[in-house]
Amino acid sequence: MEIKPLMQAGAGLTTPPPLALYLHLPWCVRKCPYCDFNSHAADAIPEAAYIDALLRDLELALPEIWGRKIHALFFGGGTPSLFSPEGIDRILAGVRALTLLEPLAEITLEANPGTVEAARFRGYREAGVTRISLGIQSFDDGMLRRLGRIHGAAEARHAAELAANTFDTFNLDLMYALPGQDMAMLRQDIETALAFAPPHLSCYHLTLEPNTAFGHAPPPNLPDDDSAAAMQQWLEERLGSEGYEHYETSAFARPRQRCRHNLNYWTFGDYLGIGAGAHSKLSFHDRIVRQMRVKHPAQYLQGVERGEHIAETRVISRQELPFEFMMNALRLNEGFPAALFAQQTGLPLTACLAALHKAEEKGLLERDANTIRPSAQGRRFLNELLLLFL
Predict the structure, then answer these.
(1) Where are the domains of the chain?
(2) Helix 118-127 and helix 85-98: axis angle, to 10°?
(3) Residues 6+ positions from 326 with CB-CB distance below 8 Å
(4) Which residues contact 192 (CB under 8 A, 6 or more apart)?
(5) pLDDT digits (tens, 9 = 90+) for 300-314
(6) Cis peptide bond upstream of 67, omega within 30
(7) What is the reported pTM?
(8) d(CA 310, CA 276)
(9) Which of 7, 284, 310, 376 could in theory staple to 12 by disulfide, Cβ–Cβ 3.0 to 4.6 A?
(10) Is 374 helix (H, G, I), strand (E, B) or coil?
(11) DSSP 3-state assignment of 50?
(12) Where are the alpha helices (DSSP H) in 67-117?
């Protein structure tokens, strides 16, 4: 595919943004009915062959990131904790050999409470994982059954305890506005989570994505919009009272415990995505490119062997860049430095001045000479705010 220059003559990126690495491990025990990620249930995982493919994929991508340091690495899925500690160690050894992975890089691994044990967590830590992200979703047995999770409440509590005792920092993923959930049930989930003193919490509103089982057949007894909004408001107030900073739409962190990898997304940093279906966003002097790997694991394995594992490569046009940047940066509740727009896109802020003015007039945005941030109303109606930049 021919890649044409993005910027006009004389314009461009003087310095590339920070770079992160994403590694996709696509298998899980069972597909959850709400999940629209590229994940595949499997009885047997070709771990060794897939690791071979990952490292070959990374090797083939080196010319695109040559000489650039990687400050954060994220194992996502699927369920990365289905891979053995030895497998994770082999991947990280390969990454260190091939790239400029910073010695103090944040290295996160997603884990399912139904697939963890103490020795496994210790093995991940010894391999170099610095942070675990646990997909708890709820501490209620009935709710977990409705969500199709493979773990129960006792396993969720055990996994959270293991994470707290094994890693210096960890994240608990929780969901709200669940089928049949009321405020008392949400409170119980949050209070249970807080008992483990997590440095980071991710709290997601259940959404019915179109290409999921819930999208085709929505579960009964979902909370209405007013109830869900009340849940969200209570969440923000309760976690704020415990000293958590609500720094991004769905993310809460203790001071200095924000997820560096996800912050890289929200500030329009670069990331190289390796593995089946992984996405990349890479900046060059005269263009910014998005890529997607082949999605199906078996086809990805075959494609890497032939060097045909990139399913799509496209340049982000000048017209798309303001929306692409704002779609990420306006998720940050504190906003972003005004200079960051030009720094990460290569465009002057005047490229989206009309949209900024309109957002201010509608009360969705606040800005001064140094900072641009969504207002309280803008955070609540984020999609309406973002549409102004299309």
Answers:
(1) 19-265, 321-390
(2) 10
(3) 352, 355, 386, 389
(4) 139, 157
(5) 999 999 999 999 999
(6) no
(7) 0.94
(8) 10
(9) 7
(10) strand
(11) helix
(12) 85-98
User: In the predicted model, is pLDDT for residue 99 greater than 90?
Assistant: yes
CA distances from 371 to 288, 327, 378 (A): 24, 16, 15
Q: Kindly give the residue spans of alpha helices, DSSP state H, lying in 113-182.
A: 118-127, 141-146, 153-166
| 158: number of Cβ within 10 Å | 16
| 184 CB-near residues (< 8 Å, 6+ apart) | none
Q: Average pLDDT of 23-28?
A: 96
Closest CA to 199 of 159, 162, 172, 166: 172
Question: Is there a contact between 177 and 227 (Cβ–Cβ < 8 Å)?
Answer: yes
Tokens of 168: 């210096």
DSSP letter at 367 equals E
From residue 386, alpha-carbon distances to 287, 294, 314, 390 in Å are 23, 29, 22, 7
Q: DSSP secondary-structure letter at 349? A: G
Q: How far apart are CA 265 and CA 17, in angstroms?
A: 11
Centre a 10 Å sphere on the Cβ of residue 104 and count the other Cβ atoms it contains.
8
If you ran DSSP here, which 8-state letter would residue 351 be given?
A: G
Give residue 42's pLDDT band: very low, low, confident or very high (50, 70, 90).
confident
Q: For residue 307, report the phi and psi dihedrals to the nearest 5 degrees.
A: 70, 25
Place of tokens 């040559």: 66
> Please, what CATH class does the domain formed by 321-390 belong to?
mainly alpha
- Name the residue among 249, 178, 251, 172 with its Cα closest to residue 208: 178
| Distance from C-alpha of 43 to C-alpha of 139, rounded to nearest angstrom | 26
Q: Which two tokens stand for residue 109?
A: 């691994």
Q: Which residue has the higher pLDDT, 309 or 285?
A: 309
What class has domain 19-265?
alpha beta
Using one digit for the tens of pLDDT, what is the confidence trace for 2-17? 333 334 322 478 889 9
Instruction: With H, G, I as helix, E, B as strand and everything else as coil, classify residue 76.
Output: strand
Residue keyed to tokens 């929200």:
266
